[in-house]
Amino acid sequence: MSIKEVVVPDIGSFKDVEVIEIMVNVGDSIATDTSLMTVESDKAAMDIPAPFGGIVKELKIKVGDKVSAGSLVLMLDTSGEATASSSAPVVKSFTQPPVTGASSEVAAVPPPSHPAPEVPAHIPPKHRPDPVAAHAEFVDGKPAHASPSVRRFARELGANLDQIKGSGPRGRILKEDVQNWIKAELAKPTGEAIGLGFPPAPIIDFAKFGEVERQALPRIKKLSGANLHRNWVSAPHVTQFDEADITDLEDFRKSMLDEAAKRGVKLTLLAFLMKAVVNALRTYPTFNASLSADGENLLLKKYFHVGFACDTPDGLVVPVIRDVNKKDVMEIARELAEMSELARERKLKVDAMQGGCFTISSLGGIGGTMFTPIINCPEVAILGLSRADWKPVWNKATKTFEPRLMLPLSLSYDHRVIDGADGARFTSHLRLMLSDVRRLLL
Ligand code: CAO
After folding, report:
1. How far is Cα 295 from Cα 421, in angstroms, rounded to an integer?
2. Is the CB of 240 under 6 A from ligand 1?
3. Which atom of ligand 1 is the closest one to the Cα of 366?
4. Which of 49, 217, 363, 373 has the maximal Cβ count within 10 Å?
5. For this structure, is 429 an active site residue?
């Protein structure tokens, strides 16, 4: 018998993330990349796949446990399997079942690059969990009385399983129980279900009015949707609009395109905006801050990590470029291109989306005149860029209108932290930076 330990892989700087679902049971025969469990932080849920196949001998975690990189997940008998997949690190095997506890003979699981099926299809039926016993996992030490998929369903809808009475065998909570609970909550007269005093949203059967197609929301959209909703409701937003004259900046950028291309870089406007934003953040440090959890203090950050909203086929993600103040425009442009590509190929690591101080959302390449971006809390401000356009601008000295390329700026900020006057000062500072490219170099 050859027993190997499987541990939590590098999951970025996430520590103590909660195990919300375990997809395998003792005795299951699993293959490489079978999803073993789902862990969830306040930002994202991720599946942990098996680094190699085998038979699960012992589970070392349970739902509700907190794990970090290196935490022991389970023991796998790999004697009937081929060696580890090429993506997994080399693994030493045990000849005896190891004792519980840390061991240096561990295998790191590669980070997941794609969502895993709810129940791994390659687990033979005889190894699948008993449909009734499947709920015998525990959440916070108490039986959840619901299967993992029902728990996930409830979590996505914000339903509290503690308050739901199960109608299934042995009182198990079924999907319909969750749906009925949600319907009952929504039907409450004053919108107390969401605590904001809204009247409940009507449940409408759209099929009564015409053909309707039901399309499941991608996972990223569900996660980011919940965060966007929370940020929109919890931070009092004000959006300051302005326009920056980027005529000279665009001339300069275009004059540098060939040189950048020789260095393998696509020199984009966004790279210059990153530099200008960091300059403004240094000048107005409250924009580079977060409110403490108790709302009593402002935490001023001495680093300048700037995120950018990136449109991917699965929804919006925000990669973060670190230490923008220490990088030149070429380096930033290179990173922007690399990270956008990784995001679109779903290969961006979790820690590449963490630690941002401020976010830029550019719709300039697509169109539109202005928009109101939603703050990426706990950051306190976000800059939206719309499409630059040629406009007649009055030149006081020559007393003539001149055609100038104007870039629309939309700065949303958290009014608990930033006053309107500072909002206007911040965009005025950006205007100044962007209208004179030499200032960006300072
Ligand atoms: N005004 C006019 N043109 C602009 C512009 C602007 N503000 N910004 C970019 N462009 C032009 C570029 O010059 C480029 O044109 P060429 O192909 O002729 O050179 C084109 O638009 C594409 O721009 P780009 O390759 O430089 O890409 P980008 O830096 O504008 O954007 C990224 C990169 C990742 C921000 C973008 O791909 C993206 O995902 N944008 C969407 C972000 C989003 O969804 N925000 C909304 C969040 S809230 O839901």
Report:
1. 22
2. no
3. 21
4. 49
5. no
How far does residue 217's CA lie from ligand 1's centre (Å)? 25
Which pTM does this prediction carry? Answer: 0.63
Residues 47-89: tens digit of each pLDDT? 788 888 999 999 999 988 999 989 999 999 998 754 444 333 2
Sign of the alpha-carbon dihedral angle for 233, 236, 241, 246: negative
Burial class (CB in 10 A: 0-12, 13-18, 19+), 246: buried
How remote is the CA of residue 43 from the centroid of ligand 1, in Å? 25
What's the pLDDT tens digit per position in 89-141?
Answer: 222 222 222 222 333 222 333 333 333 333 333 323 333 333 323 333 334 44
The CB of 270 under 6 Å from ligand 1? The reply is yes
Mutate to test the pocket of ligand 1, among 256, 269, 411 (most ligand atoms within 8 A of CB): 269
pLDDT tens digits, one per residue of 161-193: 878 888 876 677 888 888 888 877 766 544 444
Nearest by Cα to 64 from 156, 140, 128, 10: 140
- Domains (ranges, CATH) in the chain? 3-134 (2.40.50.100), 222-441 (3.30.559.10)
Measured between alpha carbons, how far is 220 from 318 in angstroms, rounded to an integer? 11
Shortest-distance Cα residue to atom 9 of ligand 1? 365
